[in-house]
Amino acid sequence: MGVNDPLPAPRLPVGLKVSVDVQRDQQPHHDARIEAHLRVEATPVGPVDEVPAAELAVVIALDVAAERREAAAAALATALRALPDGLSFTVLGGADENGAPTGCYPLRGGWASADTAQKRRAAFSTGRIAAAAGDRPPTGYPVWLATARALFGERPLPVRHLLLITDGSSQDESDETDLDDSALQSELRRCAGRFTADVLALGSDWDPAPLLAVVERLHGDPVDAPDRFGPAVTEAVRRIRRVRSPELPVSVTVRPVVRGVTLTENAPRGQVLEPVSRQEEPRRFDFPTRPWESGARDYLLTLHVDASTDPLGVLLQLATVSVGDSTAALLVRWLPPGVAVGAGTADGGRGTRTMNVAERMRAALACGYDALDPMSRGEAERQFGLAVRLADEIGATWVLDLVREVAEILDGPQGVVRVGPTVDHATVRLGRLHIGADHRLELPGRAPAEPVRCPDCRHPAGPSARYCIVCGRRF
Questions:
Q1: pLDDT the model gives residue 3
Q2: Which of 67, 68, 59 is nearest to 101 (CA)?
Q3: What domains are there in the chain, each with its CATH number?
């Protein structure tokens, strides 16, 4: 198996159900924007809850400065002793004089299979880990990723995962995230689909941008870990053992009138997914996403449609959405001019509106943190105020907790905040990292609510009604 081969199929079966909610009645336009609430529910099938450890390959890469090396080596030794038996693992730590990551364990060959003796020897070998050299250029995250990619090419197992533990010592100019052709972005494209990755960030001297780029493209988690990070490594291994399907993209197939497709995950995590198009199927877009575990995910699917030549008043299928063997259709009806647009959805469009608010809320948070570094107090207050107001609207209390770390909330519903004269930049970096973490967003359920009726005359009423319009009874 070569380094560019995709992941093998997993053994744990998973049941998937895809559903699409969209405002069915729409006004036609040459560039109509259609937004739909897409939900994918994953259900375990069978009695097994964890991937066998023998089906996992894990690269643990430790990148720390000299002042953190001793504590990090001790924490890594603790984590290695806790690895499950049968897991394939390799440990990288430090770099040689040429800037290439060096192998810490095993001493010969690329991989070891965890058992009592191997884990004991690996823990002892952490003393060989070299600190990042202050007198040489930093290694750069692309080099760590390329080394992991080469190692995983030698281990054809169903689940392959990188744990990058860093205090930011490796970062250099190659870690530019704003340029598509930067060394980091190019290497991430090579790694996508080959393995997943978590980042454990130690201390507070790291730049969150490249770390978030790694976990978003490789579908992992960003963690601000303590210096005693052993339990965080153990939890990361437990999480990847709960993966039931490493690679099942969300596939969207559209009619020729659809000119643009975007997909944003809103729950349990907020991130924009990058599509992969196929030359042989130009109207199909595959959106690689995180490995599938049990639970539901919610997405905002946006289509730009040229409806200028479509018929009016009939249901049209603009797209189909598939994950695995489950498929759902996106149907709309273009209304004649002057006809009022109705709700047309099971939840009245509340799910789509909530996801729109969540997307704007996360964007405002990110802009607020950007305004604090360098300090632009007025812009930061405006952006954080918007984030707080939107968070209050959808009940995202985690946003309020983040904002309180850098500003005082004077009026949440009105979005009034006050940033102090000084801001701790370490707190700003942690806040930016936390935006990409797993903050769950409660979205409306799919089943239509039981209609509200007057208890006396049984006349139907709206959900917010206080009096019956027929008999006048107070609810």
A1: 44
A2: 59
A3: 14-48+245-348 (2.60.40.3670), 53-241 (3.40.50.410), 353-435 (1.20.120.1690)
